[in-house]
Sequence to fold (90 residues):
Amino acid sequence: MSHVKAGGTSKNNHDSPGQRLGVKRFGGQKVRTGEVIIRQVGQTKLAGDGTFMSRNFTIHAAKDGIVSFKQRASRKFTGKTVRRTEVVVE
Fold:
C-alpha cells in the first residue's frame, strides 16, 4: 500500500491572458495608413471615412490623418435604430 495520501485535484486553475481590446488611438491623435485605431469584439463601433474594418472587427486607418469620433444612428436588422460611434480619419 501507498505511504502517501492521494493528492487532491485542483479546479479553476486555468486562465487565459487578456485580449488587449479597446481604443488604441484617441480623438485628435495623428495616425498613419494601416495603424490600428480600435480593437473590438463584434461591431460595437463603426468604420467611417478614412478607415476600414478587418475580419476580426479591428478598425484601421486607410490614410494618414487625424482620428475623430462621431455619433450616428445605425439601423439594426429588426428595424430598430441605435446610436453607434463612428470612427473617422480626416
